[in-house]
């Protein structure tokens, strides 16, 4: 953990309430997110027990499975979930704008500019925790290869019509969520821990109730006591007073309440289904409210400057998947081929570098952490000396000396970057530490001054001005140029088999739990 | 899984490399548990968990003495939340039964498919399945050792269903029970671990596989003792495979699939941690003479009558090395956490925070060194208390060059200054709309 | 995917007591490698090279023989410094060989020394280098290079430090390749999670060699059996601790190298550890146990003092390379650390003691380099906990295998206990080949050996 965050946690522990880690909000929050709180059956892979889902915090839709061993009930649940989720996802598909993009013309091989659609907004699915996000991914995996009766009249256990489509969307959202800074699918715990430091460990922060207790302690309680209450207080029957945020249930709840109720349902006791519905709903509702409370806390923070840029990438991602679905492409394969895996990794590494840079540029508190780590430094300009490059056409390369109390880890000729008012970055190289005066160092500007023989006005800092240089790039690009999958070289097993396994359904057995 | 412990060693089954504990230690450990209290069995899971926090002397002593930590935690007023859902148990049992149906034919097929190609497959009806029942754990362990010896000498395929193995734990035998062991015609013994978490598209939850590997390493370690004796008796070269067979449900089905898991790393750890358990004697010797963790149970054997604060004092006589990871691995963790938080130990925020703090051990020391505000008003609200108030004790003088010589102090002071500057420069935070009160429970809304 | 194949690890290599002729063993290995490279039927050849086993010499020789046989080739290295180094070595061995140095568009990426070489042409455009016998560049640059027609032959250097996805990007440029690297050094890594591909043969975050061999298990695999760098005092330890399945030997015998001082020691801990290192090849300067921040001032100062005394005492080194003792100058000494801020602190401490010209760097940057004497700040010194970073086998291996004569380790007491108390709860990914021995075991092995050369010191 970076020292500056450790310090914030200690301040929080001493104060009994969370402390900010940022001064702005670094993630896009939709005006109308879809919240989904899932619960699963213990011991089963992807046998849902229930969910609360919806965009209206006052009126969530409660879905429950009275007997998770009953395939029909599970399918009914998934069909209802699809009916709740797909219209929301589709709701962003038709409001589009147009953007220009370079594409390679398949006939001429030339780069040409084409007009493409970009959805004006995109859906945002919020789940309570990282485990919840993983569960969405799991549901996506378990349903996207199902066959409906329409697709395959011979399918032994046909899935309800829209369930495979739900699986493809959940898979897409789940994969997108692995891209640093992306916001199509967000776990609330991750959102909150990005913005606040609690007085407990990162491990304990995974508990949404405890996390919120630190960030927004109830009147008269310290974050610590409230968090301890949230995670472990039990009633006389040993049931947690604050149910866990799922998808796993509390074993005591399973054994004491759920199992007997299910037994009554199996025995056909009248009212048992309603009783189960109430039980499961009772476990879900506190988490539902907690997610919305977190949403309110985050909405109160002003958005960071680059948040909209990153959300635009999410809109591209959404638009692209919309197009794939419309084009009738098969579901995403079970495992990526070599080229797809490498492409994803490259794009995520680039996204991580961009996110790290943008958060620092948007937020002096994040930048403070980078300065402490020796990755940036700020100081007051003490002198500017005119200088020019060698060569036939000398260009301005002024020397800027500043005084700083930061201790950047500079090596000779280190490249530096500084944001200019127009959002572009100015480049420089480190020249030397000053003689005598401690904390004095000189850099040579190498760009961002226009193309003229004199620097563009305002592009060279003046004595007395405070500047902040970073050792990291502001708009890092990256990733090697990768071949097309059909050109996969021998070192990586050659081109993947032409018929992807993507369309084959999973094996099933009569007693399967999904 | 049934496990037993602290019975007289069975002559053939127990590796006799280490001396049995001295009578004085045995007496001391009995005193620590309390008169008449049987030591709690250490199963493979518990033995594997020794590696979860080997630096904790409290845990080493309590486990070494066979103290029931769950009951102790309950009596201390900090019960553990550990427990298993009956749905998960039922699923685990039904899956294991399915894997072992038909004399383990499916299990052997899974194993054979992961052997080098060319290995002859076991024919139907060719797999021996010896009866392993016997009276008492030492009898069962001896029966298992005999079956292993015979199977190795016979040179065919043998499936041992729930064999019982003895492990030497600080001089006393503990008994562990793998799901199955397969003896191959080439004399290699393979541990089989059956779990009910799924392998989806060939991948499984890495934390769960890791736990299974550590548990399997305990079985492999126990088997090695038997294998050494079989080889020493000249009954064939017996070798324990360093890869175990992990069997799990495939994807979302009930069909089993399997993977070979290399457990050499976990085995090295297990050996080392078991060897270190002998320090229980040294820890016990350092306790005040009358220390005991006796709960003074009533006659029903359930209700503790010993006052919690007296117990807490006893527990406090041996140091814990609490870290948040303990919460998932030790029944006493909630108690240790409360103590750690009361003391303001930096580890209560995570093991990783210590790296840059040098010799500073408490939150108070760190904040004082940083010159940061040490507000202690509980419940002071959601929003940043930017350090507008200077603390009464500013901590070390920022200009004192001696302090700057300690890089931990210097870094902390810079961190606090940079943080305060950035927060002060930011726009004043927008007040948070509080959700309407009125929920039944003031805390859990 | 069903996990790793169910076979035992490879049998140990040489290490017995039979008479061993290092020169003959190395020549035999090189001949076999060159034969497979020039005349083999498989598209790839993999060579494992332990520290100082003559990897660069092999690459230069293979390149020259391929070129001489009428096969133009491309060479892939990982950093610009490695590329420049290879070009200089090629030109030194064969000044008439036309060599292209393909570089990036940013200024200052190429060593100015290349400009003085008549047959070397440097350019940012591959078109300018057409017809050159050998073209050398970094993997990153090759990954953005498009050519009409690729090469029949390639050499990939430092292949174990190259990531699988980088190989994927460049492998389309050649038909067959010689992959050379050191499996014991630091593995490549990714700053974002790549767990979802763990266990796949082509996991993009794995090493290039791991992917290559997973898809082509029948490729000929060789290893260079002799370290010419490590002295007889170091090779057995490094081989046992880091290469238990592919052992190697030292090219020199116990008496072939020696260190001597112009002035006798003053009895201080620093001088005593230097005497110990001169006599045995290893020295451990142990400071009292204490939890410290990474830039532990006492340990940092101790490192600087060791270097200072090494220079002050007129240290000379005798080796098989020269007829007589050669002075151990600042340029022949390096300091290795785990972290960059530690390196910066040591540099500052050296400057305070008036020492200049000594390389101080992290393990990552010391990979592939060689010195007479190294001074190492132990990665676990003063730490309250061990992390995966500090336990990484490759990091310790790099730090313990840069020296030709002696290595002095500076460390706080208590590391063995720290290792014993390290929680072992690592997750396990199915299908991922386990790296063995792990860092925890390797650290114990190295510590046990260092303990035999311990000099306690209270600064």
Automatic annotation (TrEMBL), chain A:
<protein>
    <submittedName>
        <fullName>Uncharacterized protein</fullName>
    </submittedName>
</protein>
<feature type="region of interest" description="Disordered">
    <location>
        <begin position="474"/>
        <end position="514"/>
    </location>
</feature>
UniProtKB/TrEMBL annotation, chain B:
<feature type="region of interest" description="Disordered">
    <location>
        <begin position="424"/>
        <end position="445"/>
    </location>
</feature>
<feature type="compositionally biased region" description="Low complexity">
    <location>
        <begin position="1"/>
        <end position="19"/>
    </location>
</feature>
<feature type="region of interest" description="Disordered">
    <location>
        <begin position="374"/>
        <end position="410"/>
    </location>
</feature>
<feature type="compositionally biased region" description="Acidic residues">
    <location>
        <begin position="396"/>
        <end position="406"/>
    </location>
</feature>
<feature type="region of interest" description="Disordered">
    <location>
        <begin position="1"/>
        <end position="25"/>
    </location>
</feature>
<protein>
    <recommendedName>
        <fullName>Secreted protein</fullName>
    </recommendedName>
</protein>
Automatic annotation (TrEMBL), chain C:
<dbReference type="InterPro" id="IPR041679">
    <property type="entry name" value="DNA2/NAM7-like_C"/>
</dbReference>
<dbReference type="InterPro" id="IPR050534">
    <property type="entry name" value="Coronavir_polyprotein_1ab"/>
</dbReference>
<feature type="region of interest" description="Disordered">
    <location>
        <begin position="1"/>
        <end position="24"/>
    </location>
</feature>
<keyword id="KW-0547">Nucleotide-binding</keyword>
<keyword id="KW-0067">ATP-binding</keyword>
<feature type="domain" description="DNA2/NAM7 helicase-like C-terminal">
    <location>
        <begin position="300"/>
        <end position="412"/>
    </location>
</feature>
<protein>
    <submittedName>
        <fullName>AAA family ATPase</fullName>
    </submittedName>
</protein>
<dbReference type="InterPro" id="IPR027417">
    <property type="entry name" value="P-loop_NTPase"/>
</dbReference>
<dbReference type="Pfam" id="PF13604">
    <property type="entry name" value="AAA_30"/>
</dbReference>
<keyword id="KW-0347">Helicase</keyword>
<keyword id="KW-0378">Hydrolase</keyword>
<dbReference type="Pfam" id="PF13087">
    <property type="entry name" value="AAA_12"/>
</dbReference>
């Amino acid at each position: 953990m970076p020292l500056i965050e450790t310090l914030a946690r200690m301040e929080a522990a001493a104060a009994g309430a969370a402390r900010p880690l940022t001064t702005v909000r670094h993630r896009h929050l939709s005006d109308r997110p879809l919240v989904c709180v899932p619960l699963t059956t213990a011991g089963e892979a992807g046998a849902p027990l229930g969910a609360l889902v919806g965009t209206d915090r006052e009126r969530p839709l409660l879905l429950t499975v009275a007997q998770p061993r009953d395939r029909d009930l599970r399918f009914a649940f998934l069909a209802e979930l699809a009916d709740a989720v797909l219209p929301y996802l589709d709701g962003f598909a038709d409001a589009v704008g147009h953007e220009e993009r370079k594409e390679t013309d398949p006939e001429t091989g030339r780069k040409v500019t084409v007009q493409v659609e970009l959805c004006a907004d995109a859906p945002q699915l919020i789940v309570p925790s990282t485990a919840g996000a993983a569960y969405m991914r799991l549901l996506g995996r378990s349903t996207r290869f199902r066959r409906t009766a329409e697709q395959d009249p011979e399918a032994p256990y046909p899935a309800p019509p829209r369930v495979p489509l739900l699986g493809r969307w959940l898979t897409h959202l789940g994969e997108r969520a692995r891209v640093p800074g992306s916001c199509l699918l967000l776990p609330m715990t991750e959102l909150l821990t990005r913005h606040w430091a609690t007085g407990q460990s990162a491990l304990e922060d995974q508990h949404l109730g405890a996390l919120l207790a630190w960030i927004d302690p109830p009147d008269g309680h310290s974050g610590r006591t409230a968090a301890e209450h949230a995670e472990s207080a039990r009633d006389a029957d040993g049931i947690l007073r604050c149910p866990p945020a799922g998808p796993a249930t509390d074993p005591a709840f399973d054994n004491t309440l759920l199992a007997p109720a299910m037994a009554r349902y199996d025995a056909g006791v009248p009212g048992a289904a309603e009783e189960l519905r109430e039980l499961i709903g009772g476990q879900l509702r506190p988490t539902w409210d907690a997610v919305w409370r977190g949403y309110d806390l985050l909405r109160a923070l002003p958005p960071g400057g680059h948040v909209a840029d990153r959300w635009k990438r999410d809109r591209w991602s959404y638009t692209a998947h919309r197009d794939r679905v419309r084009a009738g492409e098969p579901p995403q394969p079970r495992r990526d081929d070599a080229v797809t895996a490498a492409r994803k990794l490259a794009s995520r590494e680039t996204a991580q570098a961009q996110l790290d840079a943008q958060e620092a540029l948007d937020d002096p508190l994040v930048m403070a952490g980078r300065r402490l780590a020796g990755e940036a430094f700020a100081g007051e300009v003490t002198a500017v000396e005119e200088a020019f490059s060698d060569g036939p056409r000398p260009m301005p390369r002024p020397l800027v000396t500043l005084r700083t109390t930061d201790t950047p880890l500079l090596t000779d000729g280190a490249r530096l970057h500084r944001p200019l008012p127009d959002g572009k970055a100015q480049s420089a190289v480190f020249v030397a530490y000053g003689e005598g005066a401690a904390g004095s160092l000189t850099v040579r500007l190498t760009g961002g001054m226009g193309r003229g023989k004199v620097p563009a006005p305002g592009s060279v800092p003046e004595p007395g001005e405070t500047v902040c240089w970073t050792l990291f790039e502001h708009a890092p690009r990256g990733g090697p140029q990768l071949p097309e999958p059909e050109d996969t070289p021998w070192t990586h097993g050659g081109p993947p088999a032409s018929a992807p396994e993507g369309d084959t359904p999973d094996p099933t057995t009569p007693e399967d739990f999904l | 899984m049934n496990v037993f412990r602290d019975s007289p060693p069975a002559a053939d089954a127990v590796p006799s490399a280490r001396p049995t504990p001295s009578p004085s230690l045995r007496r001391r450990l009995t005193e620590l548990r309390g008169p008449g209290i049987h030591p709690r069995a250490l199963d493979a899971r518990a033995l594997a968990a020794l590696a979860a926090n080997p630096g904790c002397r409290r845990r080493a002593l309590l486990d070494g003495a066979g103290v029931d930590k769950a009951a102790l935690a309950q009596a201390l007023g900090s019960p553990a939340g550990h427990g298993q859902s009956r749905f998960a148990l039922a699923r685990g049992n039904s899956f294991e039964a399915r894997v072992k149906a038909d004399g383990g034919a499916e299990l052997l097929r899974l194993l054979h498919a992961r052997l080098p190609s060319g290995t002859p497959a076991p024919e139907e009806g060719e797999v021996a399945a010896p009866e392993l029942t016997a009276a008492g754990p030492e009898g069962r362990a001896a029966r298992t050792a005999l079956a292993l010896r015979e199977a190795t000498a016979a040179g065919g395929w043998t499936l041992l269903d729930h064999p019982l193995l003895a492990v030497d734990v600080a001089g006393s035998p503990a008994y562990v029970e793998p799901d199955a062991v397969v003896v191959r015609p080439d004399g290699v013994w393979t541990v089989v671990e059956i779990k009910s978490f799924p392998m989806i598209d060939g991948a499984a939850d890495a934390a769960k596989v890791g736990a299974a590997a550590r548990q399997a390493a305990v079985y492999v370690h126990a088997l090695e003792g038997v294998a050494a004796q079989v080889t020493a008796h000249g009954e064939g070269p017996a070798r324990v495979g360093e890869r175990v067979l992990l069997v799990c449900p495939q994807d979302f089905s009930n069909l089993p699939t399997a993977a070979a898991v290399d457990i050499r790393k976990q085995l090295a750890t297990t050996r080392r941690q078991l060897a270190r358990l002998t320090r229980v004697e040294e820890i016990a010797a350092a306790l005040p003479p009358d220390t005991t963790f006796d709960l003074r149970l009533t006659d029903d054997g359930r209700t503790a009558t010993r006052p919690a604060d007296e117990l807490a004092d006893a527990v406090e006589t041996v140091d814990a090395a609490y870290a948040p990871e303990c919460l998932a691995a030790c029944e006493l963790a909630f108690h240790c956490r409360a103590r750690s938080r009361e003391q303001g130990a930096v580890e209560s925020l995570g093991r990783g925070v210590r790296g840059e703090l040098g010799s500073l051990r408490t939150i108070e020391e760190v904040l004082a060194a940083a010159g940061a505000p040490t507000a202690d008003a509980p419940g002071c609200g959601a929003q940043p208390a930017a350090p507008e108030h200077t603390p009464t004790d500013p901590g070390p003088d920022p200009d004192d060059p001696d302090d700057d010589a300690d890089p931990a102090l210097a870094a902390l002071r810079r961190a606090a200054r940079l943080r305060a500057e950035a927060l002060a420069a930011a726009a004043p935070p927008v007040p948070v709309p509080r959700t309407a009160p009125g929920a039944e429970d003031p805390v859990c809304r | 995917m069903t996990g790793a194949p169910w076979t035992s690890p490879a049998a140990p290599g040489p290490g017995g007591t039979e008479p061993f002729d290092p020169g003959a063993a190395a020549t035999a290995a090189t001949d076999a490698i060159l034969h497979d490279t020039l005349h083999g039927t498989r598209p790839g050849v993999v060579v494992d090279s332990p520290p100082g086993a003559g990897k660069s010499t092999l690459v230069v020789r293979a390149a020259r023989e391929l070129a001489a046989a009428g096969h133009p080739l491309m060479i892939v290295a990982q950093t610009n410094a490695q590329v420049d180094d290879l070009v200089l070595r090629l030109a030194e061995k064969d000044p008439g060989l036309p060599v292209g140095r393909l570089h990036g568009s940013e200024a200052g990426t190429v060593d100015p020394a290349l400009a003085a070489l008549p047959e070397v042409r440097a350019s940012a455009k591959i078109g300018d280098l057409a017809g050159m016998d050998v073209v050398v560049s970094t993997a990153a640059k090759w990954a953005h290079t498009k050519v009409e027609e690729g090469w029949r032959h390639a050499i990939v250097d430092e292949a174990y430090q190259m990531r699988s996805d980088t190989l994927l990007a460049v492998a389309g440029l050649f038909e067959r390749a010689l992959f050379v690297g050191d499996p014991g050094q630091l593995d490549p890594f990714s700053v974002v999670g790549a767990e979802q591909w763990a266990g796949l043969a082509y996991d993009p975050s794995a090493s290039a060699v791991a992917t290559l061999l997973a898809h082509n298990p029948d490729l000929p695999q060789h290893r260079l059996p002799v370290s010419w760098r490590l002295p007889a005092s170091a090779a057995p330890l490094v081989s046992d601790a880091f290469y238990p399945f592919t052992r190697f030997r030292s090219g020199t015998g116990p008496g072939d190298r020696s260190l001597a001082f112009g002035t006798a020691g003053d009895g201080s801990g620093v001088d005593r550890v230097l005497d110990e290192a001169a006599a045995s090849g290893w020295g451990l300067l142990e400071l009292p146990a204490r939890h410290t921040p990474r830039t532990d001032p006492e340990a940092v100062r101790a490192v600087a003092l060791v270097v200072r005394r090494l220079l002050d005492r007129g240290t000379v080194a005798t080796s098989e390379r020269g007829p007589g003792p050669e002075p151990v100058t600042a340029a022949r000494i390096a300091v290795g650390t785990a972290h960059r801020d530690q390196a910066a602190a040591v540099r500052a401490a050296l400057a305070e003691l008036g020492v200049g010209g000594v390389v101080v760097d992290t393990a990552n940057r010391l990979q592939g380099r060689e010195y007479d004497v190294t001074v190492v700040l132990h990665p676990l010194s003063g730490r309250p906990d061990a992390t995966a970073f500090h336990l990484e086998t490759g990091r310790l291996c790099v730090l313990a295998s840069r020296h030709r004569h002696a290595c002095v380790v500076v460390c706080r007491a208590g590391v063995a206990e720290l290792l014993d108390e390290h929680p072992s709860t690592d997750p396990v990914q199915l299908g991922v080949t386990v790296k063995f021995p792990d860092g925890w075991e390797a650290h114990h092995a190295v510590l046990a050996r260092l303990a035999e050369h311990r000099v306690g010191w209270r600064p």
